[in-house]
Amino acid sequence: MEKLCVYCYSLNLNSEENIKCSTCGAPLNPERNMEKIKTRNPRLEKYDDTDLSKLFLPYDELVKYSFVQLYRLLKLARIRKEETYLKKEFDEYSTLKTQSLLIENLLFDKGGYVPKAIQESDISHLEYEHRRYLNRHEIRIKEALENK
């Protein structure tokens, strides 16, 4: 007669010498297991509740430690996210500052002065003067090529 193992669900031949599962080695006699379950554990009975809590204290400490570790990791992730955001803001600021310094230097070279505030009209006037300058030189180059 075949008997089914309650742990790994494999079929085993039920004989006198085969009292353990051939796959996992678990006992095939469930009555014997039930007898073990019904007996009380004398090692735990001699402790009261406060002593039992001391037995589980390392688990509580481990849970607290893992919670603190998780909290620190989340805090570190928030800080890294803010640092990334601030770095992007700083990069944008440095780019704009470099552009403003370039415009100020161009204004100083071309106009001889740097205004207190640079307006959009100043930049558009610079673009207009630059185009006018390029057009004059293009006309001169065309005339020089035609005269050759």
Would you give an account of this structure?
The chain is mostly helical and 148 residues long. Among the domains are: 1-39, no CATH class; 117-148. Helix content is 70%, strand content 4%. The chain has five helices and two strands, in the order ββααααα. The protein has helices spanning 30-38, 42-45, 49-55, 57-111, 120-147, and strands at residues 2-4, 11-13. A hairpin with a 6-residue loop joins strand 1 (2-4) and strand 2. The longest helix has 55 residues, at 57-111. It is elongated. The model has no long low-confidence stretch (mean pLDDT 76).
Radius of gyration: 43 Å
Total DSSP E strands: 2
The ordered string of helix (H) and strand (E) elements is EEHHHHH
Helix proportion: 55-70%
Which short descriptors sum up this protein?
single chain; 148 residues; mainly alpha
List the helices and strands and how they pair.
Layout (H helix, E strand, L loop, with lengths): L1 E3 L6 E3 L16 H9 L3 H4 L3 H7 L1 H55 L8 H28 L1
Antiparallel strand pairs: 1-2
Quick synopsis:
By secondary structure, the chain is mainly alpha-helical. The protein has 5 helices and 2 strands, in the order ββααααα.
